[in-house]
Amino acid sequence: MADLAFLWHMHQPDYRHPESGHFVLPWVLLHAIKDYSDMACHLERHPGIRCTVNFVPVLLDQIEDYCDQLTTRQWRDPLLRIAAHPEPDALSDDDRAWLLDMAFRCHAPTMLEPFAPYRRLRDLLAFVKVQDANTLSYLSGHYYADLATWFLLAWSGESLRRDGHAVPELMAKGDAFTLADRERLLAELGDVLRNLIPRYRALGERGQIELSCTPANHPLAPLLIDFNAAREAWPESPLPSAPEYPGGRSRVESHLAAALASHEQRFGKAPNGLWPAEGALSAPFLNQIADAGFRWTASSHGVLKHSAGDQASTTIPWQAPEGTPGDVTLFFRNEHLSDLIGFEYANWHGRDAAQHFMTELKAIHIRDKDALIPVFLDGENAWEYYPYNAWYFFSDLYGTLEKNTAIRTVTLSEAANVHRTRRTRLPRLTAGSWVFGTLSTWLGNADKNRAWDLLCEVKQCADRALQGERLTPDERAAVVQRLAVCESSDWFWWLGDYNSPQSVACFDSLFRENIKSLYRLLHLPVPVSLDHPISHGGGAPESGGTMRRAT
Prior knowledge:
By secondary structure, the protein is α/β, with parallel strands linked by helices. It has helices spanning 27-45, 57-72, 78-84, 93-102, 108-111, 116-131, 135-138, 141-154, 158-163, 166-173, 179-205, 221-225, 230-233, 248-267, 283-291, 301-308, 335-344, 350-367, 391-403, 412-418, 446-467, 473-486, 490-494, 501-521; strands spanning 2-10, 51-55, 209-213, 273-274, 296-300, 318-319, 329-333, 372-378, 407-409, 424-425. The chain folds into two domains: 1-74 and 191-439, Glycoside hydrolase 38, N terminal domain (7-stranded beta/alpha barrel, Alpha-Beta Barrel); 446-545. It is built from 24 helices and ten strands. The strands form two sheets. Strands 1, 2, 3, 8 and 9 form a five-stranded parallel β-sheet that branches. Strands 4-5-7-6-10 form a five-stranded mixed β-sheet, sandwiched between helices. Helix 1 (27-45) links the parallel strand 1 and strand 2 (51-55). It is globular.
């Protein structure tokens, strides 16, 4: 019997402004009500499906922040503040401008075009922009109230549209949403947010899923440890001017410890496995993973090929190279199948996609009746490109898998146990990630390298302050927390000319604001260079740049 091991990776970076704590971007909220809720629902509807679900602690922190907002009504997200405003005509210009900039950011063919009232709001805005330069004040408060409501409705998951109350009723109503309508919607979304972590915990406690984690703020750990790791798979990679990230190993250790603490707090027990941020591994990082007590970790076929040759197979688990402490099992994803789900099947009829996927699985099973088939990808970013948020794809796929007797679904811990005798010793581990098998998405470009240099400079300042005695205990804790946010891989992901100017501007600004905040926490002057953008973008990447193909 072949074993299919899904891993769904749930992650969003910290979108909160470092000074105000307000959300600059609403993606945690929107993915929570759409994707995290739907993915839980698919599993609840198909109890025969087993898989691994990976949560990054910084995502869980933000979900809990939203739960607090929806309970206390102390709004830190402009979208919620606008939706809850009792007098939309009194909205500030800042809130109006923010909403007009954000409220049509979605994949229009699946999330906007199907809804005539939402289309009318878009078309009215386009008309007004042509007719009147003073768009903010020309549009009525009712327009903004309806727009905020539709932005939330468009991002509501298919499970909410089918089983909710406020969501389907307001979608049917279409416009002229009253304060009472909007309050009903926020109450329903609040219930979704508050139930998310308990739902996944319950799925884990009954053994249907395995819950794994990622270092706390999603750092690109191999680069924190050693910039030269970038040259293992790409020998010509340009490096930052700084020789290394100061104290990188201890920072990785801190992210690992925080992840373990977060996981035990939220899910009641320590995780067995760790999905490294961006699937990025290196030999020194693997040693730290093992020392932290993790029993398995994973990466991409690209990393496997660079480590063990082109013929190395993903259909078996691998044992860590000789000399690695403990007994860590490594899994390497089937990139073809993972990318089919991530990028191709969105354009297919759901049933056809599910049947094609099953055909691909059967072909692997014919070649190797005991094959392990690892399919790893983001658990949120692909679904907006599917009709109905991939509802029919998952219904058909999970339903077919439940009935199949030749292919079973397993968690990664189960895969490690069942396939233990098939493990092969990895001869060495070449540093790389799930994008191209290299680390080039986060280092090597001039803008990315400049960002690393800015981070290294403030890290040196932080180290000196933390080694001294001028900071109070609270100030020291705040410095360490802000430093962790600055170390996220996401800042480096978005910098570069191949990404859209709009996305680059948002992430570039937020990265610099976090570094500025760190200087202020250290009671140091903020370098003038941080007032200037690092990168400008200029591309139009696939899937808006949120995902990248393996090759």
